[in-house]
Amino acid sequence: MSGGAGPDTVRGRLAALRPSSRVELLDDAIGGLSLVVVLIPQAMAFSALVGVPPVAGLHAALVSLLAYALFGSVPLLSFGPIAIPSLLTGAAVGALSGGDPARAVALSGALAVMVGLTLLLLRVLRAAALVDVISAPVLIGFVSAAGLTIAVSQLRALLGITAEGSDRFLAAFLNVVGALDGTHALTAGIGVVSVVVLLVGRRLAPRLPTVLVLAAVAIPASVALDLGGRGVALVGEVPSGLPLPGLPAVDVADLRALAGSAVAIAVVGFTQTVALAKAIAARRRRAVGADREFVAAGAANLLSGLFGGFPTGGSLSMSSVLEASRARTRNALFWTAAFLAVVLLLLTAVLEPLPRAILAALIITAALRFVDVAGFRSVLRVSRADAAVALATFLGTLALGVLNGLAIGVGVNLVVHLSRRMRPGLAELGRVEGTTELRNVDVYPTVGTSEGALLRLDGALDFLNAGAVTAAIRRVVADRPELRWVLLDAAGVSELDATGLRALEDLTVNLDDAGVALHLAQLRAPQRGTVARAGLHDRLIVDRCHPSMRDGLRALGVAEDDPVLAPAPGERRPDGFV
Q1: What is the mean pLDDT of residues 132-149?
Q2: CATH code of the domain occupying 424-555
Q3: Residue 30: its pLDDT value, please?
């Protein structure tokens, strides 16, 4: 029924915002207040990472929270400025802005609009699978390297030195090292102490809003000690008032230059957001609506760009604050936005004496958490090839910058994936001793037959691997001249394209000419349909394709008491066989 107020409509979600009790209302308000006191310094800090005034981060947070609260599928997921999209934005905008803050605001706003439109377009095209090009190994390598790059990029503000910035780790590090003789001692002291306080606070009191405590001490101390007059860089003027909508002042050339970054930020940001949404939803036994997440993320970024912000995403640290508080529903996000609006209207002057070194310390401590050593170890245990992908992405991002590093990771991952697909998953089978099960002879102690070969193919038989699969079967036949038949277990053949079908037909003819019969077993219905549509039903299915491996063996003349079918008296079952 159209026009209803179901739970998945905007009207339905607005109707669900009515608190069920005063207790729930109070809990959500406390959660919103807890979030806003941590969100404000983080949003301002990521503004520095982008290269725009601090108020841009506050504007981005305000509208992103409202958009996600309306459209998102996970009630306690906080949306706003986060590290990786901010780093990618800074890299894209910095090359075009020429150091002009006003132009940086326009470019980052345009980029956010493009990210939002990209996500909404992906939703319309139902292209969620595109996000999967960022595999787990690529994401681990990229995020780890980006974390180190972010941390190094903030050393200038932390130490109070003047040095060229870079989105390349090595270049940024060398720039800082070369300018260390210009370190501002007081700024460096504030920055280092802030890093220590944040790290110790996270370890000893993870639920304590250490950032708020630090800011609450630093702001009055900054005024009392006149830190600005003593050379410490402060946040400075933060304009008051709510943001007004407007199109970013950029031209077509700017949009073209930002297009690649927009796609990268959309894919990476959405991948991180969905992973976070799934984790939060699983803990609350909820489902994540992929379509709603596309709409929510798209709307959040689109509005952020139109209201003077920059690209945003789901925040792990901010969502953790909500979960650790008493918040119960998505109303906590509206409370957060309301409190943030009050700050923008009345309290921006309070933020102005905050030392920028503290914001740099906040970014550094947050970024270092992205270095996923445990993830590298886990990937290495699973697959050396995947570990190589993660390492290539990591080194490429450190050496060549975030966008180039991400491209390298995706490219290497695709090459590894294609190389895997081109290697046939072909195994020889035998009867496991003491059972009637047919399994891989390289894994279990098995019994076979000299008259034929039992093989199993797992995966697609297509243009990528058809030549390798048929070559492998031909080698088996060539190495064993006594063979009279080959029985191929095709239950695992997930796809059969024109190239694979032609290769299978040619193999059948060639083996027939050599006096070796090729039979199939357990070929799936979709693949049988492909064979029939190609007009090869009589050649490849009739009298050659069987419902089970045992039926195939019987059709090939193997007796019921043959060792390959029946265990001998007293034959022992392998220990641990399942």
Answers
A1: 85
A2: 3.30.750.24
A3: 84
